[in-house]
Amino acid sequence: MRITLLLCVTVTLMTACNRDQVKISGRIVNAEKMTLYLDEVDVYENRPADSVVLNKRGSFSFAFDTRIPCFYQLRLSNGKLIALFPDPGQRIKIEANASNLIPSVKVDGSHNTEQAAKLIKSLHETKILLDSIKMEYEKTPDDSVRNRLNQEFSDILEVHRKFSKAFILTHYNSLASLYALYQQYQTGSYVFYKNTDLQFFKIVSDSLSKYIPDSRHVKALKAYTTNLLSDYNAQVILEMAGQPEASLPPVALPDMRGDTITLTSLKGKYVLLSFWASTDQNSVRQNLELKKVYNRYKDNGFEILQVSFDNSEENWIRAVRYDELPWISVIDSKFPNSVVAVNYNIMQIPANYLIGKDNVSILGKNLTPSQLQLKLEDILK
Question: What sign has the CA pseudo-torsion 239, 241, 243, 248?
């Protein structure tokens, strides 16, 4: 009975492993004596997983285990690549010609890899057209011809951008869509480069975070997208602050007595709009340094309006009194559902904006106490 049970467990484990095992096989002709590598594509590096020297027939076969959709590539020793986006248990067959690799790739057994091959072929064709235009552009000194070529360049790139957008909207739950986001039509020049393209990063990040939350690629994309949105939102605030008729997003929150304090009520002073929480040790440490700066400049037209994101008013009041914080303290206990946090693009604490006397211009962002002191020395001298 015990032997039978052990056999059952062994068979069960082997069956589970086989379900997760990916097999990749096929032929790459005109690649005799070339080495074909199977690389695992990680976030910051590619790790060789296996390799084979191809014979005249060009046959190859690789296998590996994975429990989540992943990103691999086949790499010839001449540097040419075939991207792979396998799901656990897939049996993928590849046929290609090393002499003209990208246009010749045929895929069976992996829908995501097959669709990604179409995207890569489109980018390959786009690069050929763009390179042709660049060569023509460099040869002609005629400004009118150059203007026409610039327009042609933009039109060709836009065709591939539209193809890529459609690809993402139909493959947003595949790692292949992540590959689409990072396409380059020349080194350092990305297909997705406009501010409006942020929506596609958000779509893919949100979808893959639900579909493959444990993927390192997905975690990295989520962090990158968060940073992109943070930078964009901060730039919007800065641009808005640069318009004379504009105003900063409103701040109207209760202090410890329950009185509503507004940012606009401090017009005429330099204001450090600061965000913190008593539960965040970095915030607490920074406050102790800020006290020195505040006490030095408070009589010279400088004020701190500090917004707490504590969910407990009692804890907030206790912390303010314990550390004897001398500036204006208010609380937004709705965090993380805080309108103020969204409007001021607060992704982490502590955070701050140094606002000019006009109550509109932003003179600095996320200043350390020492940086703040240098800034105040400059503007208040």
Answer: positive
Residue 119: which of 70, 192, 218 has the closest Cα?
A: 192
Four-residue CA torsion sign, 156, 158, 160, 163: negative
Q: Which stretch of DSSP H or E encloses residue 228?
A: helix 216-241
In this predicted model, what pLDDT tens digit does every residue of 100-132 receive, in sequence order?
999 999 999 999 999 999 999 999 999 999 999
Contact between 68 and 88 (Cβ < 8 Å): yes
Collapse the DSSP code of 214 into the 3-class scheme (helix H, G, I; strand E, B; otherwise coil) and give the result. coil
Q: What domains appear along the chain, each with residue ranges and CATH number?
A: 19-108 (2.60.40.1120), 118-238 (no CATH), 252-379 (3.40.30.10)
- The pLDDT assigned to 14 comes to 45
Complete DSSP assignment for 156-173: HHHHHHHHHHHHHHHSTT
In tens, the pLDDT along 192-237 reads 988 788 889 999 999 999 999 999 999 989 888 887 777 676 666 6
* Mean local confidence (pLDDT), 323-350: 84
Identify any residues that bridge with 101 across adjacent strands, giving them in sequence order.
none
Cα 44 from Cα 24, distance rounded (Å): 24
pTM as predicted: 0.60
Q: Rg for the chain (alpha carbons), in Å? A: 29
Of 129, 172, 177, 136, give the one whose Cα is nearest residue 154.
129
